[in-house]
Amino acid sequence: MKSATVATGRGTVWVLPALVLVVLVVGGGVFTAALQSLGLMPLVGEPALSFDAYTALGDDLWRSLALTLSLATVSTALAAMIGLATALSALSGSRAPLVAAGLTVTVPHLIGAAAMGLLLADSGLLPRILGSTDGSWPELVGGRWWIAVVVEYAWKESAFVAIVLAGTLATRVAAFDETAATLGAGRWARLRLVTLPLVRPALIASTAIAFAYTVGSYEVARILGRPYPEPLSIMAVRLFTSIDLAARPQAAAAAMVATTLTVVVAVVAVHFLRRSAIWR
Amino acid sequence: MTIRTRILPRASRGLLLAWFLVPLVPIVLWAASNRWSFPAALPQVWGVDGFRNVLAAGAVDAFVRSMGLALAVAAIATLLGACAAQALVRADVHFPAVVAGILFAPLALPPFAVALGLDVLVLRARIPSTVAVIMLLTVAAIPYTTYLMRAAFGAYDIGYEEEARTLGASTATILWKIRIPLLAPALSGAALLAFLVGWSDYVITLLIGGGRLITVPILVASLAAGTGNDAVVAALSLTAVLPPLVLVLLLSRLRRWRSR
Amino acid sequence: MSVELSVRGLTKMYAGQATPALSGLNLTVRPGSCTAILGPSGSGKSTALRLIAGLDAPSAGTVCVDGVDLTRSPAESRSIGMVFQRPMLFPHMSVLDNIGFSHRASGQSRRGSREQARRYLDLVHLGDIGDRAVTDISGGQAQRVALARSLAGSPRVLLLDEPFSALDPVLQTEMHDLVRELRTELDQTLVLVTHDQHEAAALADSVAVLIDGQLQHHSDIATAYTRPSTLAVNRLMGGLNEVDGHLDARGTHHSAIGALAVDGAESLGAGPAVLLLRHEMIRVSDTGVAGTVSSLRPTGFRSIADVTICGITVRVELPAGAGTRVGETVCLQIPSAARAVVRR
Known about the structure:
Structural class of chain A: mainly alpha
Number of strands of chain C: 20
Helix content of chain C: 10-25%
Order of helices and strands of chain C: EEEHEEEHHHHEHEHEEHHEEEEEEEEEE
Largest sheet of chain A: none
Shape of chain C: globular
Strand content of chain A: under 5%
Radius of gyration of chain C: 24 Å
Structural class of chain C: alpha+beta
Oligomer: heterotrimer
Number of helices of chain A: 11
Largest interface: A-B, 104 and 87 residues
Number of strands of chain A: 0
Distance between the termini of chain C: 44 Å
Strand content of chain C: 25-35%
């Protein structure tokens, strides 16, 4: 039932504190970063519009972007599949994986990175248990394929996706599942025609959030990754904290590229969400 | 609902359980080991040296600082998010879609980018770094608190308040005796999420705190950077997981107790 | 061709409860007929329906359709449709796609399902709203769509779980007319669960009364009114008169009202018994049992008069426009069809 009330504006005062804070912080931060990257807010010297910060990084910028994109895509895809599987298993009665996911959600990413390091490094628990202690253990931490990093992101984000989807499944989908059964739909037909479509908005939203988080994450790549190539977040922080003051605009440039990426993903997600008829 | 739609094979339950729990095992083992050299599969000497060294490394200060930070973020973000959500659900604001979009925008922006840009402004405005960190983390938490409270207000039945009003209750009474108790589960859930945001953060504290603001994640990272610190890192990690875990358990216990 | 539904010894015991929700239900629904399961809230009627549909597993007993035991079959392969109290229309599909769902689920293309769905949409007289979203239709329309959706699955048995209780009386009457029309067009075996005896009378050929999980009465509608098996069934069927007294061996009930012969009461045997009088069939006339009108209660256009006879209150339904007043002395004609006797 659509509401036909006209907004009175009376509630504006209640939104204002949150709104003002967000606009100041986010707007100020992103705007300032953009200005810095374009040379309009240098630490020393006169402001002058230039794209030097971007060109100085050169190919490294594209390599970093490609790496960031691949890490985010692979880990988010894994997280979506595992999270969906966990939520569906909770629907069919085994709630233990969902409870374990709840536990994982409380673990800070930094701790998760440390945990993965202790598990997957050459001297970690997994090679010790599997008996692969003679140096034949693949380089998961700091290796070419960034496997430990992807596993950590997938681990944490799958828990997040599972919790979000389980909430939706329990409330909306359960009743419709019975109705579909009385109409003659078997397990797979119910999954395909009822469960998945109803869970689609939550899946889109949670995977988009997970993707954006992965792009913005620093600590995991720092602890479990290798020095080169570096994801955009590592590049930005390294340049920002370097002694060379000329590196500041370059750090901002890397940050702006990462921001553009996440904003594009957010816009795409919102577009698909709008198409779902049941997005509230 | 009693139809149990078994979609995945039975083995998947064990696999999923292992997926979520196995990474936590080495932390527990390392935290409880005094000596565990390669390539033994289990610690050779059990003990709590790790925890002892944790205290020596300044963990208590970091713990207190993290607690203060997380509690501040939880309080402010929940309050702001609840007020904003209430206004949005009541349709009392102009351009609600734009307002909601702005409030959810922090989800779409990398925190290091915002922190990086904001650092200059913070320095120029001479805002203390702790305040700036709290502001940034609150902004990062607002999408979650607003979303949760929006769902809660959507399900909230205004009929209770209207009934109380006909019985002569004042606005303050209605707020404290009806609205807040009825919304308590959602409020505590939102506060928990915001607490997690504040408790877990690393990069914002690093960039704006300039390395001087030592929170638990900062301490863990600096210890993990060195070698041979595995037991200390594990012990500190365990204590870092404890407060959020305790809060989550408390919350679910509270919910079960209230619904009885 | 419609089929028979047969339920034997159906029992459901939920964990942690002292008494079974459903206890040994035996019921046969003849092909093409409509049986109403009538009962108060918590009597186990919805439980019975869920067990028949296969949404819950029974603790004991069998469910057979057309002679085939379906107790172990999952709900989706029983070909037993169910319309719930709330329409439960899939929110992510249009009206037409909802109706075509069972075709879709059996593998037909979306286009083919929609074509078939149109026929059922016309059947419920909603031919022009096929492309609307389910949020854009009224409650009554939604329930019609739910009905069409279940019928489109060509179920061998259709179960209706209080499907019209959420609608206002005018809409309810419209839906009753629709169901009667559908019954003449389609040869369908129906089971209707309701707490309203008017609805049971309007739609069903026979009524089974469930009270506290037990079947206490099963007969055609008229007999349920005039010859209820127990006191509880009588009250459920809207009977207002219970007169305590004594039944002799020849089937005559003796009470303060007098001696009233009741057909077929000899089989009950002598002893204390309750006389049930159908208030709709008692007439006010010049001769008969005399009493005083102690109160009048309007029930819509007609009214019910409480007539006191020797300390016992007998309720009588007065026709519309009757001029009876409180305090008047009236004479009541109690035809033998209005009389029944049960043990307390």
